[in-house]
From TrEMBL:
Protein name (database record): Inositol-pentakisphosphate 2-kinase
Gene Ontology terms: cellular component: nucleus
Family per record: Belongs to the IPK1 type 2 family.
Key words, A-Z: ATP-binding, Kinase, Nucleotide-binding, Transferase
Any one Gene Ontology BP term: inositol phosphate biosynthetic process
Role: Phosphorylates Ins(1,3,4,5,6)P5 at position 2 to form Ins(1,2,3,4,5,6)P6 (InsP6 or phytate).
InterPro entries named among the record's database cross-references: Ins_P5_2-kin, IP5_2-K_N_lobe
Species annotation: Agrilus planipennis
Highest taxon of source: Eukaryota
One family name in Pfam for this protein: Ins_P5_2-kin
Keyword Kinase applies: yes
Length: 487
């Protein structure tokens, strides 16, 4: 069965069980399996498990009777948003096109049974969904054609860096959203210790602050740091810290590992996070990377007097380094949650907003405005939004606006929640086959040797418009937990 999607891509049926596969991990929205022979991952959507009888019947009707069109439409829309917008905004060196595949009901049923023992208890509140899934490169491995020049294990570091930038309109608190959330986690018992990690430090452009942030991530990884050796998770919040020492020793191919080698490794990681990486720039589309910096510098003066406990100061990151690619999207939101919530509430009071219709609208806008770059389109809307706020005449300016004005906030929210992977493997001393690796992907770490390195950014799928309401409530909960614990 081969289907044609609206994106004009052939949807290929994929059988997972008749090839080598492993469980890679899962988040709130997707479960990921790795197909090591293909060096690909399959990203399978998850759905809420029905709890009540009514939910059970609705789910049954939806899945088994009304299934195909509705579910296909969801997955197709996710893919369209990813391919038409997010890939262009991030750039082809860090993301790859997703290939739609179809997984049968029977296969999902069999997989669910096998996966029972692998899935963490806290994630079992959702089922995996049959039908459309996405096939993507597995960033825990390097491209096959580089293999002949490389030796030793492949190490991949996954970081979910979270919000490294707070719009000026939202800076009412001395703590950034991530640090505030630590108090909620502490209160509900999901963590024992507050992490010293602050995303503002990781994105600060200051090496001292970045290195401190990386040390904190390693010491208290929560769901923000993982290390994979040859595709297998060897260090995360559930593993002993020694595992990290061991894997660093192996990657450096040293007999001895000392505290010092971990420091060397963190320095190396910091350098990699700051290295421009644009070997695949031809696929970058025509998005202009520099558009939004000016706007922020104009707003900065207004707010420079706030007292902070998190350090809100920051230096520019080198263009095209992996952190800069993420931060640039986070900074696309100038108006902040405060103003986006007001607009969302206003539009919703005029007509109930559909959570996903914005995707069709923004994709259509991009296509009719070609060759204008998608980032410029979003920034034009955002600029106008901020201009309206500046006029300060309350809700009346909202009459001229629609949900497209909320899209920059949604894009920034996706960037606030995405993950990155830095993957590395040592280059053989004899350097045979080195010509297969783009020069830009080889990094020299002095006595520790040369490494081939690749970067990936993932979890760039759309969020519903209702996330704005969720963020409003979430922020109030965070502030309250902070006040309760610190007062
Ligand atoms: O709201 P946040 O900042 O806590 O982020 C949520 C994440 O929590 P985190 O703090 O990273 O542990 C949360 O991650 P976990 O499930 O906690 O691993 C999801 O990523 C969630 O996104 P979505 O609802 O699946 O689209 C994330 O929600 P939104 O990005 O939709 O807000
Ligand atoms: N392209 C990829 N290459 C390698 N590993 C990946 C890739 N995509 C996802 N993963 C792995 O699968 C895990 C779950 O994927 P992902 O974070 O995209 O799930 P999610 O449900 O969308 O997350 P969230 O809870 O943040 O919404 C990741 O933590 C990562 O370890």
């Amino acid at each position: 069965m081969y289907l044609k999607s609206n994106l004009n891509q052939t949807v290929v049926p994929l059988s997972i069980l008749n090839q080598e596969w492993t469980y890679r991990g899962e988040g709130n929205a997707n479960l990921v399996l790795s197909l090591p022979n293909l060096r690909k991952i399959v990203k399978i959507r998850k759905t809420e498990k029905p709890v009540t009888l009514v939910q059970f019947l609705t789910e049954w009707l939806f899945r088994y009777v009304l299934w195909t069109d509705k579910i296909d439409a969801y997955s197709e829309r996710d893919l369209m948003f990813y391919s038409d917008l997010m890939v262009h905004l991030i750039g082809g060196s860090f993301v790859s096109p997703a290939v739609p595949v179809i997984i049968t009901k029977k296969e999902i049923y069999d997989l669910s049974i096998i996966l029972k023992s692998e899935r963490p208890e806290c994630r079992k509140n959702k089922n995996i969904q049959f039908g459309r899934a996405s096939l993507l490169p597995d960033y825990a491995f390097l491209p096959k054609e580089w293999d002949s020049a490389l030796t030793g294990p492949t190490l991949a570091i996954e970081i979910k860096p979270k919000q490294g930038w707070v719009p000026f309109y939202d800076r009412q608190c001395e703590k950034c959203p991530f640090c505030l959330n630590q108090y909620v986690k502490l209160k509900n018992g999901s963590i024992k210790n507050i992490s010293g990690y602050c995303p503002l430090d990781l994105f600060s452009g200051s090496k001292t602050r970045m290195i401190n942030a990386l040390h904190c991530l390693l010491n208290n990884p929560q769901n923000n740091f993982r290390a994979f050796k040859d595709g297998i998770c060897v260090y995360d919040e559930c593993s002993p810290f020694e595992n990290m020492y061991k894997v660093v020793k192996e990657i450096f191919q040293q007999n001895q590992t000392t505290k010092n080698s971990l420091d060397v490794f963190i320095n190396m990681l910091c350098e990699l996070l700051l290295k421009p990486h644009c070997y695949n720039q031809k696929d970058f589309g025509n998005c202009d990377i520099t558009i939004n910096n000016v706007e922020h510098s104009l707003l900065i003066k207004e707010d420079s007097k706030i007292s902070t406990k998190c350090d809100f100061t920051h230096h520019d990151l080198p263009s095209f380094c992996v952190l800069e690619r993420i931060l640039a999207l986070q900074m696309i939101d100038l108006a902040g949650l405060k103003n986006n919530f007001l607009l969302y509430k206003y539009l919703n009071s005029k007509r109930t907003l559909d959570n996903w219709e914005y995707i069709d609208k923004i994709c259509k806008l991009i296509s009719t405005n070609k060759p204008k770059c998608p980032k410029r389109i979003l920034m034009d809307y955002e600029r106008k939004f901020v201009e309206m706020i500046g006029k300060g005449d309350g809700e009346c300016y909202f009459d001229e606006m629609d949900e497209i004005y909320l899209v920059p906030y949604i894009v920034a929210s996706i960037a606030n929640d995405c993950s990155l992977m830095v993957t590395m493997r040592k280059v053989k001393k004899e350097r045979q086959g080195i010509e297969n690796i783009p020069e830009d992907c080889i990094f020299d770490f002095g006595d520790n040797g040369q490494f081939a390195v690749n970067f990936g950014i993932f979890d760039l799928y759309p969020k519903p418009l209702s996330v704005i309401q969720k963020h409003k409530t979430r922020n109030e909960r965070r502030q309250s937990a902070y006040r309760q614990i610190t007062s």
